[in-house]
Amino acid sequence: MKVKETPETRTIVEVGSARFGNGFVVIAGPCAVESEEQIEEAAAAVAIAGADMLRGGAFKPRTSPYSFQGLGLDGARLLAAAARRQGLPCVTEVVAVADVHPLAELVDMLQIGARNMQNFELLKAVGRAGRPVLLKRGLSATVEEWLSAAEYLLDAGQPNVVLCERGIRTFEPSTRNTLDLAVVPLLRRLTHLPVIVDPSHATGRRDLVLPLADAAAAVGAAGIMVDAHPNPEQARCDGAQSLHLSEVQKLTRRTKFFASHARE
Ligand code: PEP
Ligand code: MN
Description:
By secondary structure, the protein is of the alpha/beta class. It has helices spanning 36-48, 73-86, 100-106, 120-127, 143-155, 183-190, 199-203, 206-218, 248-260; strands spanning 13-15, 18-20, 25-29, 53-55, 90-93, 109-112, 133-136, 161-165, 195-197, 223-229, 243-244. The chain has one domain (14-262): TIM Barrel (Alpha-Beta Barrel), CATH 3.20.20.70. The strands form 2 sheets. Strands 3-4-5-6-7-8-9-10 form an 8-stranded parallel barrel, surrounded by 8 helices.
């Protein structure tokens, strides 16, 4: 099936017990896996909060080469072990073709980050890897470019693709990016693929994550992905936008409530 075919039945992407496109999926966890203790603590809190999936970056695409680059495959192993212990499926970002297979063996879902949305060789390799894919919108990508990127994954043989709106570059510097929530109902008219929202990378600010997560749920998103950390003040990556673990339960309850009242 092509990305833009809009059949009667919408695509439901199953990742372990999480079902994108049926109910509301909450993905939470640290921006980056930093240590075994950190990811185990995060995983336990995410599970207790009633969230559905654990996130954690192992390969981090950072603006500066001097910023923490992630723990690599060791980080992915820690993520997978923590997720398994809690009975949660997990997702991590892949940034290089060479890492696709080792990561596909470890985690339940592969993420293509905003900076790689048009890395076509990576899209082809991930599309062949046999795992569901979370495809983030590029920093300055149009909806058409984003859907074309998703087409690469489908064309390569992977039908289970979830789109993730994570904010786009605009003239407005008050938030890290500008969250384009209009794409959620728009994409429902353009594609059968489920769409989720990442209010953490969209805003860069912890205090804006809950209100925008509520809004994403109300406007019909299939889920959200948020950064959450045991100690955001000490986080090695994106602490300012990371929720405290104690906030994840409220986030999960509220968004699932709003989603149950969302427009079709
Ligand atoms: C992330 O989700 O860890 C990430 C790097 O996000 P983005 O690719 O949207 O910037
Ligand atoms: Mn981040």
